[in-house]
Structures are given as C-alpha cells and as structure tokens.
Design goal:
This protein is an alpha/beta fold. The chain contains 15 helices and eight strands.
Length: 355
C-alpha cells in the first residue's frame, strides 16, 4: 500500500513563555542552531535597538550586531551586504518588531543563513511567515523568503511593548476568517485550489483569538495570540504563499497604505477593520458582528474614521484595493462594486454594527 505524505517547512523551535529571552543562548546551542556561537544580530538603528543590544550583548560574546534593519528593501540589502562582509556566522537573529524581522528574513535569505526570529511585539503575522514585506520605490513589496528556523517570544518583553503594537496583532489574526473565506470563494468561482490544511490552520488560529475571553494584560491571552500568529505564518508556509492569510482584508489595508502614506494606522488595525467589512460584504453579517465585537473589546478600530480616514477615503481605498494584488480573487473582485455601491454598503455596515 503506497504511503502518501508531504514535508512542511517549519521552525525547529518555537518557544513562547515568560523569560524565554533569558534562555536564548541555551536555546540556540541546544537546538544546534548556533554551535560555534557566531551570530549576526539584526536590530533597528533607533533607541529600542540600542537598549536590546545593551541588554543581550554580554550573553553573546561571539555575536556581531547590525542596525541596518529599517523595514526597506534598501536596508535589507545593506544588512545582507554588511553580514556577508563581516565574516562567517551560524545564523541571523532578528531582535525587534515587524520591520526588523522582515529585513532580517530577506537578508538571511540573500546570504544563505537560517534565521531565528525573536519578537519584541505581536503587531502582525510576519514573524513566522515565508514572506518579507518591505518598503521600496514603488511603495511596498512582498518578497518570498524561507521561514524562520526558530521563533522565540518572551511574554515579559511583550507585556512591556506599546499596547497598540500588541492589539494590532489581534486584528491581523482575526482577519484570517475573511481571508480563508475569500480563498474558498475563488475555489467556487474560478476553481483555484485550496489547501485544506493551510485553511484550517489559519481559520482555527483566528477563532482561538476571536473566542478567547482574556485581554492583552493576561498572559494566557498573550500566549494564544502569539501561538495564533505563528500558526498563521505556518499556514502560509504550508500553502506556499500568503493566500490563507491575505484576502480582501489585506487588499484594503495595502490600498490605505498606498493612497494615504502619511497616515499612521497600524497594519493589523487596518486588516482587522478590512476583514470585518469584507465579511459584511460577503453577507455573513453574524460573523462580521462577532469580529467587530472582539475588535471593539480590545480597543481596535471598526470604522474608517477611527483610523483617521473619511468615508470618501474608505470608498477610494476599496475601489483601489484590487489593484494591490493583481490576480487575487476576493469578495471585492467578485462584487466589483462602484463608488456609490461601496458608499451604500459601508453605510449599511456602520449602521449594522452600531445597533
């Protein structure tokens, strides 16, 4: 009888707990990620990067530190060049938020080294994904990269992170409900293949956060949120692209970013809103209300004005959104609404979630 199976890329270590960073050196040694202790640490050039270096440099005497991770493609290339010129290393370790992780993922891929992602906040799902999102001359691009070989999340550090950067991760997880629904819609309409395992991982990660009664001051909730973000990244690795994690929700988010680059809404805030609105457009009003209730309970925006956008800004963003991911079929492409229809649908959404 033939045995059919497949191999999935996944980290060799995922450590999510209070005090995990204190054991980072032991984790890297025990897992044989850094047998010689030669590590290239990627940090930001700002004050937070300096603080992290001062705290952890004594524990890693064989490490070199690079502060080129600024969230841009130019910064990622510079980081890779700096690492390559500096010597030989066992691995790259990203120590910081999303911009640092994405720069380090791209740089590690460029120099052919494994990456260990150490998170200092839970702002979005890029921590364990095979995608690096980096600013470029055209605005922002997504680049395929290997997934991290290790993920370390210290809940003590997460508790000290700005609350907004933790809440944003809630929005980026919950919107997977909409992203998976978009994927299944494309299967029904266009025959696009859906990877059932990837879809299940992303959907269950979202529901774990959606149904959890705790908040960001609760370690149990933070653990579930961190695990869910990791699961979303693994779902993308299983699928081979971002499909289980990115649909109309992310198209709307990227449209806001490109049309209004000087606004300061977080990625996860925009995705959470986009996921709720897209779910409403799909006609699943009960699920949309559940998503809105959870977002509100955690202090996340559920209306455009709560992110600093006018109703017209929202209409413009939804109209433009399909152009951010050509070839991706979501509820936005399916409905193909004009400006007046979007305006009316948003008014219906705003009324429904206020009742």
């Amino acid at each position: 009888m033939p045995v059919l199976t497949r191999l999935m890329p996944s980290p060799v270590v995922v450590d999510i707990r209070a005090g995990a960073l204190d054991d980072l050196a032991t984790i890297l040694t025990d897992q044989r990620i850094a047998p010689t202790g030669k590590l290239a640490f990627a940090i930001s050039s700002g004050a937070s990067g300096k603080v992290l270096r001062e705290r952890f440099a004594p524990a890693f005497p064989g490490a070199d530190w690079f502060d080129d991770a600024d969230g841009t493609i130019d910064g990622a290339v510079k980081l890779a060049d700096s690492i390559k010129k500096a010597g030989r290393y066992d691995a790259v370790v990203s120590l910081g938020g999303g911009k640092v992780v994405d720069c380090a993922k791209y740089a590690a891929a460029r120099v052919g080294l494994p990456l260990v992602a150490v998170a200092t906040n839970l702002a979005h799902d890029g921590l364990c994904s095979p995608v690096a999102t980096l600013d470029n001359d055209a605005g922002r691009g997504s680049y395929g990269v290997p997934s991290p070989i290790g993920v370390v999340i210290d809940l003590d550090v997460i508790r000290d992170a700005p609350a907004r950067f933790v809440r944003a991760g809630i929005g980026d997880v919950i919107c997977k409900i909409s992203a998976v629904a978009d994927w299944e819609l494309s299967h029904e309409v266009n025959g696009e293949q859906v990877d059932g395992l990837a879809a299940a991982m992303a959907r269950q990660a979202a529901h774990a956060v959606l149904r959890h009664p705790g908040g960001i001051g609760d370690d149990d909730f933070l653990s579930v949120l961190a695990e869910s973000l990791v699961m979303c990244g693994l779902a993308m690795s299983v699928a081979g692209d971002s499909r289980p994690a990115s649909g109309a929700c992310h198209e709307i988010c990227h449209a806001f970013d490109l049309l209004f680059p000087k606004r300061n809404a977080q990625h996860g805030e925009q995705c959470g809103f986009g996921g709720a609105f897209a779910t409403f457009l799909r006609g699943d009003h009960d699920t949309a209300k559940d998503m809105v209730e959870t977002l509100r309970r955690h202090g996340l925006p559920v209306l455009a004005k709560e992110m600093g956008y006018s109703d017209q800004d929202l209409v413009d963003a939804v109209l433009f959104a399909p152009q951010t991911r050509p070839g991706r079929y979501t509820i936005l492409e399916h409905l193909n609404l004009n400006a007046d229809q979007i305006r009316d649908a948003y008014a219906d959404y705003a009324k429904a979630i206020s009742s």
